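To fix ideas, we give here one paired sequence and structure record:
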Amino acid sequence: MSLERLNPAGLSRASGFSHAVTATGGRLVLLAGQTALDGAGAVVGETLPAQFETALGNLLTALAAAGGGPADLARVTVYATDVADYRAHAAELGRAWRRLAGRDYPAMAVIGVVRLWDEQALVELDGIAVLP
């Protein structure tokens, strides 16, 4: 399996994401949306950064159960109830990403949503990974 991250010179500088990711060979893993739910099913964290870190941890736990790790992520979509708040905390969210997932960034998008399944949830992440 091989993932190649592409960031063409003609596009704006990719910071915290890759413009394109190609995958060759391997097994496709589709990761369900993860919020900041703890093991008992309760949303934890009062702030977007706290919830982001838990949601990312949950996504990586699901990926690990499939036999993968952060470097196998080809795509992640972030759903945020307040995109301005997400942008305001971008540096903190980036630090959390690097601490948990490293610097091999997948193709990413942030999408503003009115609300998520759990009313207290501020952010949700889903993803696609390619395993060997």
